[in-house]
Amino acid sequence: MYFDMDWEIFFYTDGVERRLLTLAECEIDCSVDNLADVATIVLPEAFMNEVILKDIESKIGRGSEVIIRLGYDGNLETEFTGYVQDIRTNDSTLKILCEDALYLFRKTVKDVVMKPTSIKKIAQSLVSQIDASFTVSCDYDINYEKFTIHQATAYDVLKKLQEETKANIYFDTAKKVLHIHPPYIEKGGETKYNLHLNVEQSSLEYKRAVDKKIEITVESTDLNGKVTSVTTGATGGDKTTLKVGPMSKADMLKIAESALKKNSFDGYAGSFDTWLIPVVRPTYTAEIEDYDYEYKTGRYYVVSVKTAFSPSGGIRTVTPGIKLS
C-alpha cells in the first residue's frame, strides 16, 4: 500500500497568515529531557537571491509564530507549534530556526529571594511575568527553604530547576502549558512497534540495571551554612554528586531517586527509525515487540522523537526510556 506524504508550514506575523510553498527539508526535535522543542526549516537554494531573502526576513522575522503539520493523504497532524528564533544563511542554504514557547521565556525576570517556596510557585512566578495566559502543570513536590533569582531570564531559572531537580520540564505550546514532572510520570498516548515489521533501522541495545551500577549523592547547604547530603543507588557504582539549593532531606531524596530512575533500569538503550505513522510523541507509551527475544518485548516510555522530512518522504527517530511493563 502506498501513501502520499503531505505537509503544511504556516507563519503568522501580526495576525497575517503566510503559507510556505516550497521546502528542501525540515527537522523537528522533541524531548522531555530538553527544555525546548525545536524545528529547523531549510529552503531550497533557489531562494538564496538577495531580493527573496529580504522578502522572507521582512515577512517572517524573529518572533513570528510557526505551525508545522505533517501526514499522509491529507490526514495531517500538528507536529510543531512555536516561534521563529532566527533566520540564517550559510553554505548556500537558508535556515529558519524555530523554538517552542521557551522562546517567549528568554526574557529577564525580576530579582527576588523566595523563602520558603516550591518548584511550582517558582514556575508560576515566571509565568505571571512572561505570559499570564500560560498555566503550570506540576506534580513534582519539591520545596526550597530559599531560592534566589538574580539577573536571570525565565529560561535561566527553568534550566537551573531542571539541572537541580532532574525534573522533566517542557512546554505544550499549543495549549499554553508549562509542564514540570518527575521522570516518566506524565503520560501521553500509546503506540506500538514491531522490530520486524514497522522499524526501518535500529541501534537498540538491551541493558540490565544490575550491569549499570550507579550511586547518586545530593548535597545541600542550608540557611545556616551547614552541608547535608543523601545517597541512593548501588554502593561501589559510578558516583554522581548533585548540588541543590537549601531544602529538606526528604526532597533531596526525591531528587536522588529521580536521577537514579533516569540512569538505571532494565530495558533498551539507543533509538530506532520508523515512518510517520503511527504518530508518536515524547511521554507516549510505546510497545516494542521482538519475536526473537520475548523478554525484550515490553512497554517503554518515549523520551524523545526526532522527525525529519522533505518532499521525497519522512522518517522518525524514536528514543525509548525505561521499560514500564
Write a structural description.
By secondary structure, this protein is an alpha+beta fold. It has 4 domains: 95 residues, Beta Barrel (Thrombin, subunit H), CATH 2.40.10; 77 residues, Baseplate protein-like domains (Phage tail protein beta-alpha-beta fold, 3-Layer(bab) Sandwich); 77 residues, Bacteriophage T4, Gp27, baseplate hub, domain 3 (Elongation Factor Tu (Ef-tu), domain 3), CATH 2.40.30; 54 residues. The chain is 15% helix and 46% strand. The protein contains 4 helices and 25 strands. Helix 2 runs antiparallel to helix 3. The model has no long low-confidence stretch (mean pLDDT 90). This is Phage late control D family protein. It comes from Flavobacterium cerinum.
- Could you tell me the mean pLDDT? 90
Structural class: alpha+beta
| First-last Cα distance | 33 Å
Q: State the order of secondary-structure elements, H for helix, E for strand.
A: EEEEHEEEEEHEEEHEEEEEEEEHEEEEE
Low-confidence stretches: none
Q: Label the CATH architecture of the largest domain.
A: Beta Barrel
Given the structure, what is the number of helices?
4
- The top level CATH class name of the largest domain: Mainly Beta
- The helix content is 10-25%
Give the beta-strand count: 25
CATH fold group of the largest domain:
Thrombin, subunit H
Task: Tell me briefly what this model is.
This is Phage late control D family protein. By secondary structure, this protein is an alpha+beta fold.
Attribute tags:
single chain, 325 residues, alpha+beta, Thrombin, subunit H, Phage tail protein beta-alpha-beta fold, Elongation Factor Tu (Ef-tu), domain 3, 4 domains, 13-stranded mixed beta sheet, 3-stranded mixed beta sheet, 15% helix, flat
